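Board notes (copied after class):
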Amino acid sequence: MKLLVTGGAGYIGAVVARRLRDEGHAILLIDDLSTGHRAAASGFELVVGDCGDRRLVGALMKEKRIEGVIHLAASALVSESVADPAKYYRNNLERSLALLGEMREAGVARLVLSSTAAVYGEPVALPIQEDHPTQPTNPYGETKLALERALRWMHAARGMDFVALRYFNAAGASADGALGEVHDPETHLVPNVLKAAAGGSPVPIYGTDYATPDGTAVRDYIHVEDIAEAHVLAVERLSRRGGALTVNLGNGAGFSVLQVIEAARRVTGRDLPTRPMPRRPGDPETLVASSALAGRELGWAPRTTDLDAIIETAWRFARTHPRGFED
Protein backbone atom coordinates (compact mmCIF):
# COMPACT_ATOMS: atom_id res chain seq x y z
CA MET A 1 0.00 0.00 0.00
CA LYS A 2 1.19 3.58 -0.69
CA LEU A 3 1.21 5.28 2.71
CA LEU A 4 1.77 8.86 3.82
CA VAL A 5 3.35 9.01 7.29
CA THR A 6 2.93 12.38 8.98
CA GLY A 7 5.54 13.13 11.63
CA GLY A 8 7.67 10.49 9.95
CA ALA A 9 10.98 12.04 11.05
CA GLY A 10 9.98 11.94 14.72
CA TYR A 11 10.86 9.43 17.42
CA ILE A 12 7.95 7.04 16.90
CA GLY A 13 7.30 7.99 13.28
CA ALA A 14 10.76 6.95 12.07
CA VAL A 15 10.49 3.51 13.69
CA VAL A 16 6.96 3.03 12.37
CA ALA A 17 7.96 4.07 8.84
CA ARG A 18 10.85 1.62 8.75
CA ARG A 19 8.69 -1.24 10.04
CA LEU A 20 6.01 -0.52 7.42
CA ARG A 21 8.63 -0.43 4.67
CA ASP A 22 9.96 -3.78 5.87
CA GLU A 23 6.47 -5.16 5.27
CA GLY A 24 6.56 -4.03 1.65
CA HIS A 25 4.60 -0.79 1.86
CA ALA A 26 5.66 2.25 -0.19
CA ILE A 27 6.29 5.08 2.28
CA LEU A 28 6.27 8.86 1.87
CA LEU A 29 7.14 10.98 4.91
CA ILE A 30 5.97 14.49 5.70
CA ASP A 31 7.43 16.36 8.66
CA ASP A 32 8.01 20.04 9.39
CA LEU A 33 11.16 19.09 11.38
CA SER A 34 10.07 21.24 14.33
CA THR A 35 10.73 18.26 16.59
CA GLY A 36 11.74 15.59 14.06
CA HIS A 37 15.16 14.99 12.58
CA ARG A 38 16.16 14.73 8.94
CA ALA A 39 18.72 12.06 9.84
CA ALA A 40 15.98 9.86 11.32
CA ALA A 41 14.31 9.85 7.89
CA SER A 42 17.43 8.69 6.07
CA GLY A 43 16.59 6.35 3.21
CA PHE A 44 13.04 7.65 2.81
CA GLU A 45 11.48 10.25 0.58
CA LEU A 46 10.85 13.15 2.95
CA VAL A 47 8.69 16.17 2.23
CA VAL A 48 9.54 18.98 4.64
CA GLY A 49 6.26 20.71 5.30
CA ASP A 50 3.11 21.06 7.38
CA CYS A 51 0.64 18.16 7.28
CA GLY A 52 -2.10 20.76 7.71
CA ASP A 53 -1.11 22.59 4.51
CA ARG A 54 -4.06 21.63 2.35
CA ARG A 55 -2.49 22.66 -0.95
CA LEU A 56 0.70 20.68 -0.26
CA VAL A 57 -1.02 17.61 1.13
CA GLY A 58 -3.69 17.59 -1.56
CA ALA A 59 -1.03 17.63 -4.27
CA LEU A 60 0.91 14.81 -2.59
CA MET A 61 -2.20 12.66 -2.24
CA LYS A 62 -2.88 12.88 -5.96
CA GLU A 63 0.68 12.87 -7.31
CA LYS A 64 1.81 9.92 -5.18
CA ARG A 65 -1.53 8.08 -5.36
CA ILE A 66 -1.65 7.71 -1.61
CA GLU A 67 -3.91 4.90 -0.34
CA GLY A 68 -3.69 5.43 3.40
CA VAL A 69 -2.33 7.80 6.04
CA ILE A 70 -0.43 7.08 9.24
CA HIS A 71 -0.97 10.22 11.29
CA LEU A 72 1.68 10.77 13.97
CA ALA A 73 2.31 14.50 13.63
CA ALA A 74 1.30 16.31 16.82
CA SER A 75 2.45 18.44 19.72
CA ALA A 76 2.73 16.07 22.67
CA LEU A 77 3.96 17.74 25.87
CA VAL A 78 1.40 17.70 28.67
CA SER A 79 2.84 20.63 30.63
CA GLU A 80 3.22 22.75 27.49
CA SER A 81 -0.38 22.03 26.52
CA VAL A 82 -1.55 23.36 29.89
CA ALA A 83 0.55 26.52 29.44
CA ASP A 84 -0.37 27.05 25.76
CA PRO A 85 -3.69 25.37 24.93
CA ALA A 86 -4.16 27.31 21.68
CA LYS A 87 -1.00 25.74 20.21
CA TYR A 88 -2.40 22.28 20.87
CA TYR A 89 -5.81 23.00 19.38
CA ARG A 90 -4.08 24.45 16.34
CA ASN A 91 -1.47 21.71 15.86
CA ASN A 92 -3.39 18.63 16.97
CA LEU A 93 -6.93 19.42 15.91
CA GLU A 94 -7.05 22.19 13.32
CA ARG A 95 -4.22 20.79 11.21
CA SER A 96 -5.53 17.25 11.55
CA LEU A 97 -8.96 18.31 10.33
CA ALA A 98 -7.30 19.95 7.33
CA LEU A 99 -5.48 16.68 6.64
CA LEU A 100 -8.75 14.76 6.87
CA GLY A 101 -10.34 17.22 4.47
CA GLU A 102 -7.66 16.58 1.86
CA MET A 103 -7.97 12.83 2.38
CA ARG A 104 -11.68 13.11 1.65
CA GLU A 105 -11.06 15.22 -1.46
CA ALA A 106 -8.54 12.66 -2.75
CA GLY A 107 -10.73 9.65 -1.93
CA VAL A 108 -8.28 8.31 0.68
CA ALA A 109 -10.35 6.56 3.32
CA ARG A 110 -7.85 4.70 5.52
CA LEU A 111 -6.18 6.30 8.56
CA VAL A 112 -4.14 5.01 11.49
CA LEU A 113 -4.13 7.64 14.23
CA SER A 114 -1.49 8.10 16.90
CA SER A 115 -3.63 8.79 19.97
CA THR A 116 -2.81 8.71 23.66
CA ALA A 117 -3.65 7.46 27.14
CA ALA A 118 -4.07 11.14 28.05
CA VAL A 119 -7.66 10.92 26.75
CA TYR A 120 -8.62 9.09 29.96
CA GLY A 121 -7.47 11.59 32.58
CA GLU A 122 -7.35 10.38 36.18
CA PRO A 123 -8.24 6.68 36.11
CA VAL A 124 -11.21 5.41 38.09
CA ALA A 125 -10.28 1.75 37.47
CA LEU A 126 -7.05 -0.08 36.64
CA PRO A 127 -5.95 -1.42 34.27
CA ILE A 128 -7.59 1.08 31.94
CA GLN A 129 -9.84 -0.40 29.26
CA GLU A 130 -11.17 1.39 26.20
CA ASP A 131 -14.63 1.89 27.74
CA HIS A 132 -13.10 3.77 30.69
CA PRO A 133 -14.51 7.32 31.04
CA THR A 134 -12.64 9.85 28.93
CA GLN A 135 -12.05 12.95 31.05
CA PRO A 136 -8.74 14.49 29.98
CA THR A 137 -6.90 16.63 32.52
CA ASN A 138 -4.90 18.57 29.94
CA PRO A 139 -5.37 20.09 26.45
CA TYR A 140 -3.08 17.48 24.89
CA GLY A 141 -5.48 14.69 25.83
CA GLU A 142 -8.50 16.87 25.06
CA THR A 143 -7.37 17.61 21.49
CA LYS A 144 -6.58 13.95 20.79
CA LEU A 145 -9.99 12.92 22.10
CA ALA A 146 -11.69 15.57 19.96
CA LEU A 147 -9.90 14.18 16.90
CA GLU A 148 -10.96 10.63 17.76
CA ARG A 149 -14.57 11.83 18.01
CA ALA A 150 -14.32 13.65 14.68
CA LEU A 151 -13.11 10.41 13.09
CA ARG A 152 -16.10 8.54 14.50
CA TRP A 153 -18.49 11.03 12.92
CA MET A 154 -16.57 10.99 9.62
CA HIS A 155 -16.67 7.22 9.58
CA ALA A 156 -20.45 7.28 10.05
CA ALA A 157 -21.03 10.04 7.49
CA ARG A 158 -18.44 9.40 4.80
CA GLY A 159 -16.92 5.98 5.39
CA MET A 160 -13.55 7.12 6.78
CA ASP A 161 -12.07 3.86 8.06
CA PHE A 162 -9.62 4.22 10.93
CA VAL A 163 -7.74 2.60 13.76
CA ALA A 164 -6.90 4.89 16.68
CA LEU A 165 -3.99 3.61 18.76
CA ARG A 166 -3.97 4.99 22.29
CA TYR A 167 -0.31 4.74 23.28
CA PHE A 168 0.73 4.71 26.87
CA ASN A 169 4.39 5.74 27.50
CA ALA A 170 6.55 5.02 24.45
CA ALA A 171 10.11 4.11 25.38
CA GLY A 172 13.22 2.36 24.10
CA ALA A 173 14.95 2.43 20.74
CA SER A 174 15.23 0.28 17.64
CA ALA A 175 17.04 -3.02 18.15
CA ASP A 176 19.93 -1.99 15.90
CA GLY A 177 20.51 1.22 17.84
CA ALA A 178 19.91 3.41 14.78
CA LEU A 179 16.68 5.11 15.86
CA GLY A 180 15.81 6.48 19.27
CA GLU A 181 14.40 9.33 21.29
CA VAL A 182 15.88 12.82 20.82
CA HIS A 183 13.96 15.94 21.87
CA ASP A 184 15.01 19.49 22.63
CA PRO A 185 14.17 20.18 25.35
CA GLU A 186 13.99 16.60 26.58
CA THR A 187 11.07 16.06 28.96
CA HIS A 188 10.65 12.27 28.87
CA LEU A 189 11.89 10.20 31.75
CA VAL A 190 13.94 7.44 30.11
CA PRO A 191 16.19 9.66 27.95
CA ASN A 192 16.67 12.07 30.85
CA VAL A 193 17.67 9.19 33.11
CA LEU A 194 20.21 8.04 30.55
CA LYS A 195 21.56 11.55 30.11
CA ALA A 196 22.20 11.60 33.85
CA ALA A 197 23.93 8.23 33.56
CA ALA A 198 26.20 9.69 30.88
CA GLY A 199 27.24 12.49 33.21
CA GLY A 200 24.46 14.99 32.64
CA SER A 201 22.23 16.86 35.04
CA PRO A 202 20.36 15.10 37.86
CA VAL A 203 17.07 13.44 36.89
CA PRO A 204 14.08 15.64 37.78
CA ILE A 205 11.39 13.72 39.67
CA TYR A 206 8.11 15.58 39.21
CA GLY A 207 6.15 14.74 42.32
CA THR A 208 7.23 12.62 45.27
CA ASP A 209 3.97 12.74 47.23
CA TYR A 210 1.62 10.69 45.06
CA ALA A 211 -0.45 7.96 46.72
CA THR A 212 1.75 5.25 45.20
CA PRO A 213 4.04 2.75 46.97
CA ASP A 214 7.12 5.01 46.67
CA GLY A 215 5.38 8.38 46.21
CA THR A 216 6.29 8.82 42.54
CA ALA A 217 4.02 8.63 39.49
CA VAL A 218 3.41 5.24 37.86
CA ARG A 219 3.35 4.74 34.10
CA ASP A 220 2.99 1.90 31.61
CA TYR A 221 6.07 1.81 29.34
CA ILE A 222 5.60 0.32 25.88
CA HIS A 223 8.55 -0.37 23.59
CA VAL A 224 8.62 1.74 20.43
CA GLU A 225 9.08 -1.32 18.19
CA ASP A 226 5.95 -2.88 19.69
CA ILE A 227 4.12 0.33 18.78
CA ALA A 228 5.47 0.02 15.24
CA GLU A 229 4.21 -3.56 15.01
CA ALA A 230 0.73 -2.38 16.02
CA HIS A 231 0.74 0.05 13.09
CA VAL A 232 1.55 -2.78 10.69
CA LEU A 233 -1.36 -4.80 12.05
CA ALA A 234 -3.66 -1.78 11.92
CA VAL A 235 -2.85 -1.21 8.24
CA GLU A 236 -3.53 -4.88 7.54
CA ARG A 237 -6.89 -4.64 9.27
CA LEU A 238 -7.91 -1.52 7.33
CA SER A 239 -6.87 -3.15 4.07
CA ARG A 240 -8.80 -6.31 4.87
CA ARG A 241 -12.01 -5.09 6.49
CA GLY A 242 -12.02 -1.34 7.14
CA GLY A 243 -14.20 -0.20 10.01
CA ALA A 244 -13.59 2.00 13.05
CA LEU A 245 -11.49 0.76 15.95
CA THR A 246 -9.91 2.35 19.02
CA VAL A 247 -7.48 0.32 21.13
CA ASN A 248 -4.93 0.79 23.89
CA LEU A 249 -1.26 -0.02 23.41
CA GLY A 250 0.47 -0.74 26.68
CA ASN A 251 2.71 -3.12 28.54
CA GLY A 252 0.02 -4.01 31.08
CA ALA A 253 2.38 -3.26 33.98
CA GLY A 254 3.06 -0.04 35.83
CA PHE A 255 6.48 1.22 36.85
CA SER A 256 7.13 4.19 39.12
CA VAL A 257 9.65 6.91 38.37
CA LEU A 258 11.96 5.49 41.05
CA GLN A 259 11.64 1.99 39.57
CA VAL A 260 12.71 3.34 36.17
CA ILE A 261 15.71 5.03 37.77
CA GLU A 262 16.69 1.84 39.56
CA ALA A 263 16.37 -0.16 36.34
CA ALA A 264 18.61 2.36 34.58
CA ARG A 265 21.18 2.02 37.34
CA ARG A 266 21.21 -1.75 36.77
CA VAL A 267 21.47 -1.42 32.97
CA THR A 268 24.14 1.29 32.91
CA GLY A 269 26.03 0.32 36.05
CA ARG A 270 26.23 4.01 36.92
CA ASP A 271 25.00 6.22 39.72
CA LEU A 272 22.07 8.44 38.83
CA PRO A 273 21.63 11.68 40.77
CA THR A 274 18.03 12.87 41.17
CA ARG A 275 16.32 16.18 41.92
CA PRO A 276 12.83 16.27 43.50
CA MET A 277 10.50 18.72 41.76
CA PRO A 278 6.87 19.80 42.19
CA ARG A 279 4.19 17.86 40.32
CA ARG A 280 3.53 18.99 36.76
CA PRO A 281 0.05 20.34 36.04
CA GLY A 282 -2.18 17.80 34.29
CA ASP A 283 -0.14 14.70 35.22
CA PRO A 284 -2.27 11.78 36.46
CA GLU A 285 -0.95 9.68 39.33
CA THR A 286 -1.12 6.23 37.71
CA LEU A 287 -1.69 5.07 34.13
CA VAL A 288 -1.65 1.35 33.34
CA ALA A 289 -3.26 -0.16 30.25
CA SER A 290 -5.29 -3.17 29.41
CA SER A 291 -4.36 -4.09 25.83
CA ALA A 292 -6.70 -7.08 25.64
CA LEU A 293 -8.82 -5.45 22.92
CA ALA A 294 -5.75 -4.87 20.72
CA GLY A 295 -5.00 -8.57 21.15
CA ARG A 296 -8.48 -9.63 20.10
CA GLU A 297 -8.97 -7.16 17.24
CA LEU A 298 -5.44 -6.80 15.83
CA GLY A 299 -3.68 -9.93 17.06
CA TRP A 300 -1.19 -7.63 18.83
CA ALA A 301 0.76 -8.22 22.01
CA PRO A 302 3.88 -6.45 23.29
CA ARG A 303 7.06 -8.47 22.89
CA THR A 304 9.49 -6.38 24.93
CA THR A 305 7.83 -6.06 28.33
CA ASP A 306 10.78 -6.23 30.72
CA LEU A 307 11.71 -2.74 31.93
CA ASP A 308 15.44 -3.44 31.94
CA ALA A 309 15.24 -4.72 28.36
CA ILE A 310 13.39 -1.58 27.23
CA ILE A 311 15.95 0.68 28.87
CA GLU A 312 18.85 -1.37 27.49
CA THR A 313 17.77 -0.58 23.92
CA ALA A 314 17.54 3.12 24.78
CA TRP A 315 21.00 2.99 26.42
CA ARG A 316 22.47 1.40 23.27
CA PHE A 317 21.08 4.30 21.22
CA ALA A 318 22.32 6.89 23.73
CA ARG A 319 25.85 5.49 23.61
CA THR A 320 26.00 5.44 19.80
CA HIS A 321 24.35 8.87 19.47
CA PRO A 322 25.86 10.94 22.31
CA ARG A 323 24.84 14.18 20.59
CA GLY A 324 21.56 12.85 19.26
CA PHE A 325 20.97 13.01 15.52
CA GLU A 326 23.35 15.17 13.56
CA ASP A 327 21.12 16.64 10.86
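Comment from the instructor: The chain has two domains: 2-171+221-249, 189-219+252-320. The domain at 189-219+252-320 is CATH 3.90.25.10 (UDP-galactose 4-epimerase; domain 1).
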